[in-house]
Amino acid sequence: MRRKGNLLSLIPYYIWILFFVIAPILLIVYYSLLDLHGHFTINNYRNFLTSVYLKMTLSSFWYAFLITLFSLIISYPAAYLITKLKYKQLWLILIIIPSWINLLLKTYAFIGIFGNKGPINAFAKAIGLPNQQILFTDFAFVFVSVYIFIPFMILPIFNALDKLNPALIDASRDLGASKITTFRRVIIPLTMNGVKAGVQAVFIPALSLFMITRLIAGNRVITLGTAIEEQFLTTQNWGMGSTISVFLILFMFIIMLLTGERKKGVARNGKAK
Q1: I need a labelling partner for 98 at 20 to 30 A (CA). Which of 29, 50, 53, 136 fits?
Q2: In total, how many domains does the chain have?
Q3: Which domain holds residue 105?
Q4: Which Gene3D superfamilies match (predicted)?
C-alpha cells in the first residue's frame, strides 16, 4: 500500500514532465522535419551540416567556453574567500541579488556604461585618452555575459566548499602538505561536483545566448541562439529554427552527461563495506 501511495504521489510529476518537457521536444523534432511549405523533408538537417552552421556551432562553443572559463576563474577564489568570512551568508546574498534583476535591464545598463558617451569614455576623455569603441565588441559581449553568469557559478562552488570537512584539510597539513598542495590535491578534488554544477549552470545557457549578442555585441557575435531567433522571427523558417534547436538540445544533453555527478563507484564501495 505504501509503495502504491508513493507511485500515486509521482503522477503530477510525470504529467508535468510529459506536457512541459517531452511534448515540447517532440514538437520541435516534428517541426524540424518540415520545410517552409509544411512538407516533410530532411534538408534542414543537411543544411545544418554545411560549413556555415558548423562554423556557427564552433563559434557558440568557443564563446560559451570563454564565458565559463572566466566565470570559473573569478568565482572559485571568490567562493573560497566568502566561506572564510564571518557573515558569509550575507555576502553570498549580496552576490546573488543582481541575478534577481531583469536581464534586459542589466543589458541596457551596460549599453549606457560602454556607450560612446558612457562613464568609461568620459573617464578616458578626462585623462586625455581618445574615445574608445567598447560596445559591439567581443570583449563587451564576454564581459557582460561573465558578469551575468557569475552568481550561478559561485553558488554551487560555495555550497561545495562550505560542506567541506575541515578535518581533511587539517589532516593534509599534519602530513606535511603545503597550502598549495592541500588546495590542489584535497580541496579542488573534493569540491569538483560543485565546479561541475557551476559549469552546467553557465555553459549550457551561454551556448544559447541571443539577446546579449544582439544588444551588446551587435552582429559581431553569431551564436546558435541568435540563429534560432533569426529563423523563427525574421525568415519565418520554423523548420530550420527547430532543427538548430534539436542540435542545441543534443549538445546540452551531452554536456550534462559529461559534467554530471558519478556516484556509482561510491555506491559500490559502500555496499562492499
Answers
A1: 136
A2: 1
A3: 50-261
A4: MetI-like
Q: What is the pLDDT of residues 175-203, one digit of tens each?
A: 888 889 999 999 999 999 999 999 999 99
> What value does the mean pLDDT take over residues 9-33?
92
pLDDT, one tens digit per residue, over 35-67 is 988 899 999 999 999 999 999 999 999 999 999
Q: CA 79 to CA 156: how far, in whole Å? A: 9
**The three grid cell numbers given for residue 80, joined into one nine-digit string:** 573560497
Domain assignment present for 205:
yes
